[in-house]
Sequence to fold (231 residues):
Amino acid sequence: QSALTQPASVSGSPGQSITISCSGTSSDVGRHNFVSWYQHHPGKAPKLLIYDVTNRPSGVSNRFSGSKSGNTASLTISGLQAEDEADYYCSSYTSSSALYVFGPGTKVTVL
Amino acid sequence: QVELVESGGAVVQPGMSLRLTCAASGFTFTSYPMHWLRQTPGRGLEWVTIISGDGSYENYAGSVKGRFSISRDNSKDTVYLQMNTLRAEDTAVYFCARAPDSRWHTFETWGQGTLVTVSS
Fold:
């Protein structure tokens, strides 16, 4: 069972915006601004989309944005495209001995 | 370009050992801490272990502490994961990932993974 909570699936039509939530606790998401988001097409290497809650690495589309409120972080994908269909994982540093925790992943479907 | 390639995955029996290798290229290897993570259908992604750029610091998830060991050979741009006393629950795809030295909590670049199956 994952330490962070994400919806199992989210769907949207091309061009729409969707938001994926990532709920944690006051020991991880709520305490540290060290939340990251990853995109994973099965069989390929996962890709970093967002780090430190809101920052995008060079080369990542500005259609991806991150935010946080309290113990919940969010990833928004705007202008949904067919290639966005993938699994999305959130991760956070935690004050517990686990150090780094993940959500179970959210499958994004483009209708 | 930056590339990480894992190898060494196999089918092994419970109690046996296995060593995974992650070969890095395209960047100054010694400047980056390296992680191993794993993914299973049941438990999702799980962080396993980290080693600092110079190899002086290591840390492990509780589920593998005492059984797994991370090491690196900076002359070969390679990081290893020695897995001993393997259990069925260690069955997973294992990924290596690099982290920026200023943000050890960020898994900046990943390999494609190697599958380890522990089964009798």
Observations:
- Chain A has no helices and nine strands.
- Chain A touches chain B through 28 residues (CB under 8 Å).
- The beta strands of chain A are 9-12, 18-23, 35-40, 47-50, 64-69, 72-77, 86-93, 100-102, 106-110.
- The radius of gyration of chain A is 13 Å.
